[in-house]
Amino acid sequence: MIIKIKKKSDIPSSEITPEDVYINRRKFLGASAGIGAAAFLGCGAADTDSDAADAESQDLEPTSWEDITTYNNFYEFGASDKEAPARRSHTLVTKPWTIKVDGLCAKPADYQLEDFIKPSTIEDRVYRFRCVEAWSMVIPWRGFPLADAIARAEPDPGAKYVAFETLWDPEQMPERRWKPRIGWPYREGLRLDEAMHPLALMVTGLHGRTLPNQNGAPLRLIVPWKYGFKSIKSIVRMTFTEDEPPTTWATQSPAEYGFYSNVNPNVNHPRWSQETERVVDSSRLFNRRIDTLFLNGYADEVAHLYEGMDLRKYF
Amino acid sequence: MDARAAVRSPRASWIADPRRQILLLKIAVWIVGLGPVVWLGAGAYQGTLGANPVEKITHIEGRWTLVFLLATLAVTPIRRLTGWNRIIQLRRLLGLFAFFHACLHFLSYAGLDYFFALGLILDDVLERRYITAGFAALVLLVPLAITSTRGWIRRLGKRWQKLHRLAYVSAGLGVLHYYWKVRADTFWPLVAAVTLAALFAIRLAYRGKKKKTRKKGR
User: Fold this and answer.
1) CATH number of the domain that residue B59 is part of
2) pLDDT (tens digit, 9 = 90+) per residue, A196-211?
3) Total CB pairs under 8 A between chain A and B
4) SS3 A42
C-alpha cells in the first residue's frame, strides 16, 4: 500500500472523503478535473512552503513491519530490553476492551472499543515517529482523528486539557516488580487545542493490519510532532480536565521530560543531544543518522499552537 | 601433592597439574572473551541483530567491558579468600579483554553510529556526562594496557601496582556511565555498582588485616 502523508491537513472531519467517493475517485477526478480535488485527495503537487518541502524531500519510506513490531518501549512488558514487549505482550487481553470517558464533558460514558471506533472513518497516514531516545522510524498508521472522539464527548467550555491512561493490570503485565520504579498506570495528556489538531490520531492499526499488542493494542494515541512517549499505548481512559494533568515521564524525571515534549533539535535532553536521530533499520549495519526536524517536520501544521511560548522553558 | 595425584586415575592427575589448570582457564577466558565478537559478527552477517543492530553491538560490547573489568578486579579478592595464588596468572588476560571490549564498544559508537563525525563525538564527550564518564574510563585503561607487559612491570617496580589501581577508577567511571545512560531501569547498573563495591571492600578488609598482622609481627 502506498500512502502519502497529507501536509495541509486542517480538514474538518465532515469533509473527509466518504469511502464510496474514494473508491470511484477516477470518475470523480474526471468530472471535477480540478487541482483542488487532486490536492484534496493527497496526490497534488508538492507544497511550496520551504519547511514542508524540506520535510517532503526526506524520503518517507516506511520502516518494515518487522522492525516496528520488535523494537518497542512498552515498560509494562519489560523496561530495558526493547525486544521484550514483542515477546511478552501476548498476555495482554484486548477483547473485550472498555474506554472510560470522563471529566469535564457533556457525555461521559464507558465505551466498548467497537462503539468508540465505529462512528469514525478509518484512514491510513504515514508519519515520522521520533523517540526521545534519539531514534526514529516512519510508520504507516491506521486510525481516526482524535478530534472525532473528543467532539463526541462534547467537552465543557472549562475543559482545557485531556488526560489519557494506559491499562494497568499486573496479572497481564509482567513488569510489576520494583525494578523500573514507575508509578503505574502510565499517564499522558495534551492541551485540548493540541488534541483537536487533525494530525493527532487515535490508532488501531499499522501497515494496514491490526495493531499488535507490543505497539499499544487495541487503541493508542499518535501525536507525530511530539516525542514518542507522548503517544500513549493501550488506552483505557480519557479524562477532560481544567488543569494540566500529571504525566508519567514528567513526574518520573521532571528535569528531563516536560508536559509538552515537542520534538525540538534546539533543546537537548540533559543527558544526550536531540540534534540528530538514528533511523531504525535492521537491514543497515551502518545506521543512517539524520538531522532531527523542528516539531518532527510538522512545524507548518502545528507551530501556531506554540506561538509566543518559550519552548526551552516549556520543553 | 604429586605423589597423591599419582595414586589417582591418570585423568585426574592430568587435571591436577596447576599449570594445566591455569592453561585450561586461560583457554576458557579466550573463548568467553572472543565469543561475543564471533556472535555479533555472525549476527551482523545473518541480519539477526534486531531492528537497531548498531545499538545492540554497542550495548553488548559495553556489557562485556564491564564484565571483564569486574572479573579482573575480582582476581585479587578471590586469591585472598581462597588462598589460590595462581589465579593471579589470569589477571592480565582478563584485563586486556576488558580493554579489547572497551575499544570495540567505543568504535561501535564512534564508527558505526556516528561514522566518525568528530564534531558530534567531541560535543558528546564534553557535554554529555555519561559519555564523559565512559570516555574517561576508556582513556584510563590505555596506560594500563600498555604497561601490562613483563618489561613494563619490571621497569615500573612498585609504581606499577599504584598505577594499576586506576583500574578501580576506570571501573567506577564505567558503572557511572552505565547508570547515567539508562532511563528508568537502574537494576543492572546497580548490580554492577554493588559488585564493584563488594570487591573493593574485600580488598580493603584484607589490607587492614595485613597491616595488623605486620604490627603484631613486630
Assistant:
1) 1.20.120
2) 999 999 999 999 999 9
3) 79
4) coil
Q: Which pLDDT tens digit goes with each residue over A38-50?
A: 333 333 333 334 4
pTM of the model: 0.80
Angle, vertex CA B22, rays to CA B16 and CA B24, nearest 5: 85
Q: Are B22 and B15 in contact (CB under 8 A)?
A: no
Mutate to test the interface with B, among A282, A288, A291 (most CBs of B within 10 A): A282
**Residue whose C-alpha cell reads 531492528 in the numeric block:** B51
Host domain of residue B109: 2-217
Query: Cα distance from B187 to chain A (closest Cα, Å)?
Result: 6
- ipTM of the predicted structure? 0.77
Q: Give how far A72 is from chain B: nearest CA, Å.
A: 10
Question: Which of the two residues, A37 and B14, has the higher pLDDT score?
Answer: B14
Residue of A66, A76, A289 to mutate, testing the B interface (most B Cβ within 10 Å of its Cβ): A289
**Which residue did the predictor score with more confidence, B212 or B22?**
B22
Among B136, B126, B124, B138, smallest CA distance to B61 is for: B138
- Give the minimum alpha-carbon distance from B165 to chain A in angstroms, rounded to a whole number: 29
What does the pLDDT look like over B95-154, one tens digit per residue?
A: 999 999 999 999 999 999 888 889 889 988 998 999 999 999 999 999 999 999 999 999
Q: Which residues, at least 6 apart from B180, have a Cβ–Cβ distance to it below 8 Å?
A: A271, B129, B130, B133
Burial class (CB in 10 A: 0-12, 13-18, 19+), A315: buried
Task: Classify the C-alpha dihedral A248-A111-A14-A23 as positive or negative.
Answer: positive
Comparing CB atoms, the residue among B47, B52, B128 nearest residue A272 is B128
Q: What is the pLDDT of residue A27?
A: 42
Query: pLDDT band for position B14 (50/70/90)?
Result: confident
Structurally, chain B folds into a number of domains equal to 1
| Domains within chain A, CATH numbers bracketed | 49-306 (3.90.420.10)
Q: Which of A179, A275, A286 sits opposite B187 (nearest CB)?
A: A179
Residues of B in contact with A182 (CB under 8 A): 184
Which candidate from A83, A275, A276 shows the least CB-CB separation from B50? A83
